[in-house]
Amino acid sequence: MDQKALTVIAPLRAQDSSSLEGLKTFLRGMGENPETNPQLPLGKSRLIHFCRFIVIDGVDVDTGDQDDPLLAFESNYDGDLDGHLREMIDIGGPALDRIWGHCEGYPDGGVKDYPAFRSFIDQRSIPYEAFYIAYRGQTLEKVRQNTRIRERIEKLLGMDQGASSLPYASIRAEGLKEEPLLPVVKKPFSIDLNRIGLLAGLALLALAVALYQWDPRLDYSLLALLVVFLLYLRLKEIMDPADPPTPFNGSGELVRVEDRIVQNQLTHIVRIKPGPLRFHLLRLVFWGINLLAKICFNKGDLGGIPSIHFARWVILRESRRVLFMSNFDGSWESYLGDFIDKANAGLTGVWSNTLNFPKTWFLVGLFQSGAAYEEEFKGWTRRHQIETQFWYSAHAQESVRNIFNNVAIREGLEGTLSPTEAENWLARF
Fold first, then answer.
1. Cα dihedral angle (383, 388, 389, 394), rounded to 10 degrees?
2. What is the DSSP letter of 300?
3. Taking residues 35-53, what's their average pLDDT?
4. In 137-215, which ranges are continuous DSSP H helix?
5. Distance CA 327, CA 73 (A)
6. How far apart are CA 290 and CA 245, in angstroms?
7. Is residue 351 classed as helix, strand or coil in its secondary structure?
8. Looking at residue 40, what DSSP letter applies?
9. Got the DSSP string for 162-178?
10. Full-model pTM
11. Residue ranges of the domains in the chain?
């Protein structure tokens, strides 16, 4: 069972600035202690991995246009949507009423009128364009159990000065005690990206040969159309405006809530470039990322970035904006550094279709363009990053690497290991 994604975008009611700031203040207050705050103590949840509430003011930093202010909610959860919503209501129904009560169309009965509340959520939910899960199928209960197993064994090893001399059977018994093991998650089907590229290349070659044998003019016509398209795209890239190089902002409310725990979050919104070409190219890139996230990047890294827990892109179609929400390990600087060093070519394909992104070549970061312009890319990212007033992580001290290591430790308790396997297993602590 893979984890699910819920994204709710609701217009805020017409209200004065003080009311809007009051909502932000309330969310920030909950966000100071998202696990145990009295309004919405999500530490009680058994289903939610990550979630956030964000007030989007609506001022476009590129154009100065004023869009209607929005309240955005996103969650990564286990199980079905009804179970997710009912659990949140049980944990903090009055807080949900107070938050979503600022939105247009919120039912008078609030969460107590569950059918009306569910209808409100359904009508304002929008699908993701691309969704990445680092540890597919690892429910929150499994993640937490694996952490408990590792901690019990670490405690046992810490009690013995000659920990490496402890027999595997003793260590295994400690790991298995106190609670039954949840079933092992079936590893997701995965294909190497290089193999996909090779197969795609061979398929295109076979198609070209078949078309040439049928009618040689078809190959030449398709090649001419491709050349015309690439030239048109390159001309658009040359003419598209870009932000002047500016240093990224390393202060303010965005930074105040960073680096509190092992993980961080990023909420980013930017307008799509005008015209149908960019919109459809963007959706095509998202389709590719979403496909690769399921069949290639499903073992803890996204395009070479090993620190992302969950990430998603959604399109706000009415205002032609892209909303990106990510939950990741480490600092903002290291996260952006991974984009630049490991995945700038692929992910530049997304943001090159948005306003004022650093100049690109054919949608990717070739020849030190796009995300490879480090200072320009960081400045552009900060410029379009918005404050996440409330953010919750269910396993706040576990990195992606730790979660996978815990999975391997838990799997090592199944059956019997050979002496060499037991030695390798022990090295995980």
1. -160
2. S
3. 97
4. 140-159, 168-176, 193-214
5. 14
6. 31
7. helix
8. -
9. TGGGS-HHHHHHHHHSS
10. 0.86
11. 4-134+243-393, 143-181+400-426, 194-239
